[in-house]
């Protein structure tokens, strides 16, 4: 009997120990996820962070752990893995025409600039902001043009924790290890874009494959590359013309899909490049990135001059043409849609089962993410002006960065409530979507990169 009780206690102790190990492992995994921001809008492309002690108030000096002037121009977002921050920029050795806030029309520059440019990848230390390494991947005159407000470094890198993959549209993909050694590079021929606006669709990574969409006016395609070597695995031609939306790898309960919004159709492919389904009805310019939440896929397209500015919520398992019939807002695979609610540049955001829309002119709307029911619409941010960056969220708050470098902090919920506004320096034009890692918010402006972090309390507080 005593032996039986002893064995029982031992078994119970072992089970408790195993549970603690498992919980510790899960906790460590959660913490590890919190300190990585490996691609545009984070690991799941949603722009949501779950780290603790993240800041909600800052100025150009308050709660600034460090700031680093960045040479040249680049609207790519920073990406983070552990203590390493990666970002791209392109330096014009000649005279650069200054980007003007709020300008959309009249910014066409159809001819490439006639000056040598330097394409650069930077690696910074997350804690200090010091430059760990800097690599120039190309120097020469650009073969393509860009919109006045754009940059030759508008595509956000992606990292897997061992290497960083940096794509510059109309130039190529460059892979580096974390020590700054180039592993491989793959050049791409320059292709013309609509009105000479340039490129912006970032690469995405899944397993051992990099996926890249290059929609242009001459030779559009979806490309799968081996991340270890840069070798082409497959290439699928596309009918879509110029497009600026980053593809999304959708892992749903049924399969893995590569979702690619385009000007003519949304197309979804399997991992072998075979077409699964299509959806017509987008606006003529598509920029926003798709994402998924609670087994629904969210897609939006909202060019300001179009009558079609739809938002779609799509369930898994679609095949063939799932386009809506005239005046319909739902079908077997489209759970709900809003025909005229999408923003132009910013992506929408789903947070705590609410879908938030930030328009380019500073109007905010919220809908129930499950059925599209309106919660509130057309609430104007005071002196909001122009918005290009996509909103982000954490700690029950929604954050909206405008082109003047001001961030509006809203309370997440069914009603519109502006909590406060954070401002930066006068030369901090804001068009890049931030990165969030651990307790740090990384804000890139035209002039510099800020690491926003709550200040340590002084002794006695």
What are the SSEs and their pairings?
Elements: H1 2-34, E1 36-37, E2 64-69, E3 79-81, E4 84-92, E5 117-125, E6 131-140, E7 158-159, E8 163-168, E9 172-177, E10 182-187, E11 204-206, E12 209-214, E13 221-226, E14 232-237, E15 248-251, E16 256-260, E17 265-269, E18 275-280, E19 291-293, E20 296-300, E21 311-314, E22 320-321, E23 334-338, E24 349-351, E25 354-358, E26 363-368, E27 374-380, E28 392-394, E29 397-401, E30 407-411, E31 418-422, E32 435-437, E33 440-444, E34 448-452
Parallel strand pairs: 18-22
Antiparallel strand pairs: 1-3, 2-34, 3-4, 4-5, 5-6, 7-8, 8-9, 9-10, 11-12, 12-13, 13-14, 15-16, 16-17, 17-18, 19-20, 20-21, 21-23, 24-25, 25-26, 26-27, 28-29, 29-30, 30-31, 32-33, 33-34
């Amino acid at each position: 009997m005593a032996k039986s009780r002893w064995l029982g206690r031992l078994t119970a102790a072992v089970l408790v120990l195993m549970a603690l190990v498992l919980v510790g492992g899960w906790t460590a995994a959660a913490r590890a996820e919190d300190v990585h921001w490996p691609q545009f809008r984070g690991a799941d492309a949603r722009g949501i962070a779950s780290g603790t002690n993240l800041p909600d108030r800052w100025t150009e000096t308050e709660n600034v752990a460090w700031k680093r002037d960045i040479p040249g121009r680049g609207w790519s977002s920073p990406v983070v893995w552990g203590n390493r921050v990666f970002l791209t920029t392109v330096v014009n050795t000649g005279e650069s025409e200054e980007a003007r806030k709020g300008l959309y029309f009249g910014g066409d520059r159809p001819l490439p600039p006639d000056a040598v440019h330097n394409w650069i990848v930077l690696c910074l230390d997350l804690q200090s902001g010091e430059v760990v390494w800097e690599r120039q991947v190309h120097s020469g005159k650009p073969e393509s043009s860009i919109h006045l407000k754009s940059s030759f470094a508008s595509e956000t890198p992606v990292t897997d924790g061992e290497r960083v993959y940096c794509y510059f549209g109309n130039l190529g993909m460059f892979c580096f290890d974390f020590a700054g050694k180039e592993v491989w590079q793959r050049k791409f021929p320059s292709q013309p874009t609509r009105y000479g606006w340039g490129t912006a669709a970032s690469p995405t990574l899944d397993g051992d494959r990099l996926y890249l969409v290059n929609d242009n006016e001459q030779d559009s395609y979806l490309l799968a590359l081996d991340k270890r070597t840069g070798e082409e695995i497959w290439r699928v031609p596309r009918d879509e013309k110029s497009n600026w939306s980053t593809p999304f790898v959708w892992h749903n309960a049924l399969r893995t899909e590569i979702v690619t919004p385009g000007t003519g159709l949304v197309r979804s492919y399997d991992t072998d490049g075979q077409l699964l389904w299509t959806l017509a009805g987008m606006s003529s310019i598509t920029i926003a990135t798709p994402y998924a939440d609670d087994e629904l896929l969210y897609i939006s397209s909202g060019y300001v001059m179009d009558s079609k500015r739809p938002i779609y919520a799509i369930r898994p398992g679609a095949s063939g043409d799932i386009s809506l019939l005239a005046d319909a807002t739902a079908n077997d695979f489209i759970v709900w849609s809003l025909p005229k609610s999408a923003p132009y540049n910013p992506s929408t955001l789903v947070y705590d089962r609410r879908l938030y829309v930030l328009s380019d002119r500073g109007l905010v709307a919220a809908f129930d993410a499950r059925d599209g029911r309106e919660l509130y619409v057309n609430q104007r941010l005071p002196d909001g002006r122009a918005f290009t960056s996509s909103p982000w969220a954490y700690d029950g708050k929604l954050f909206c960065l405008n082109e003047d470098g001001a961030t509006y902090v809203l309370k997440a919920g069914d009603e519109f409530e502006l909590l406060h506004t954070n401002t930066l320096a006068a030369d901090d034009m804001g068009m890049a979507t931030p990165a969030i890692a651990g307790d740090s918010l990384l804000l890139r402006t035209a002039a510099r990169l800020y690491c926003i972090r709550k200040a340590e309390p002084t002794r006695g507080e």
